[in-house]
Design a protein that fits this description.
The complex is a heterodimer of chains A (45) and B (382).
Chain A lengths: L1 H35 L9
Chain B lengths: L2 H4 L1 H5 L2 H19 L4 H14 L9 E2 L6 E2 L2 H10 L3 H13 L3 H5 L6 H4 L2 H12 L4 H8 L6 H11 L4 H13 L1 H12 L2 H4 L12 H18 L4 H15 L4 H23 L5 H4 L2 H31 L20 H13 L6 H29 L1
Antiparallel strand pairs in B: 1-2
Classes of the chains: A mainly alpha (45), B mainly alpha (382).
Amino acid sequence: MINNVEAALEIGAIGITGIFIFMLIFYAAIKLILKLFPEKENKEE
Amino acid sequence: MDISVLFPALASLTWQHILMILIGLTLIYLAIFKEYEPTLLLPIGFGTILVNIPLSSAINQIDGKTGEIIEGILSVFYEGGIATEMFPLLIFIAIGAMIDFTPLFNNPHLLLFGAAAQFGIFMTMFIATLFGFDLKEAASIGIIGAADGPTSIFVASRFAPHLLGPISVAAYSYMALVPIIQPPVIKLLTSKKERLIRMQYSSKKVSRKALIAFPIIVTIISGLIAPASLSLIGFLMFGNLIRECGVLNKLSQSAQNELASLVTILLGITIASTMTAERFVTFGTLTIIALGLLAFVFDTFGGVIFAKLLNLILPAKKKMNPMIGACGISAFPMSARVIHTMGLKEDPHNFLLMPAVSANVGGQIGSVVAGGLILTLVNLFA
């Protein structure tokens, strides 16, 4: 049981860090995509 | 003649069966009269009645004379649709076809809330291990915090199929209860001043090419980093590509309507095949239902606290309304609506809907990424 608890803690730490890394990569991907494929008639509201 | 010969089902009826039939009726009541996720809770409720009538031909039974298994259709559906992961994955195509990523392109930084609000998954997983659940069971319980029914079903069917019934019921019930669960937690964590913060929101038109490139790039990146997440994210993004490509409008409409409806009916009633009295009437079920609630509370906590932490480093003009953090869960658009309404209650001129929707779309991606990571990490540790 102690092993499970420790493993869950480790998975939690790696998991939440991993999700942030994924999201930061997706953030960068969105920025890159917007630069590569800009909307020609950008109208800010 | 003996009653057990004339009416074998009646003679075999136990209090556990009656309790399960009452649970089925309650789910049907909640679905119809309270409109709590009726598309799933109604089939699950009816299916629960169907499988808890003793000797039901809807599920596999063992022939008392020959010892052979007499196949029931719901057991066949389970083997074909859930054990193979086909039904949840088909639902992902439908969900992908329904998601519009434009709000995320307008404010991509809000994607980070989709990460912070997954905190509940891992916290609940940890707590579940303290209750004696093994790692795979704990992960399946924790994933209720994804606030995403198909992801919960996908992970639970792989790691803890025996817990699929209570996990599905908890996931869908709490998704419906987001308007009741989130506001008190948010109020507890934020001050009136914080809830009054107004947010800037940019709304630009996004090119078609950009919206087409996004699902393809996300799939490739996710696959290269965590291949185990590829079926989850890939099917979601495939559905989105069908939507955004612009040349498959008929398929996109079919995915959003016919496919979603058909698979939802089958998914709901098939999940019910696991809700037999022998499996469901246990102390573990109550623990799972309680832990599921905790998962949603910790999700809200994670999102709100992350927003508050960001505010410590952001300049005064760019401060975030911490309530937005709570939208990082996947319950779309329920969570965004809840925050928008809360914002209006504090200040009738504070419109938080658009940033809330952006964060909520981030939550839809975040929950699937979390599911993929759980699949990868638990396999490494278990």
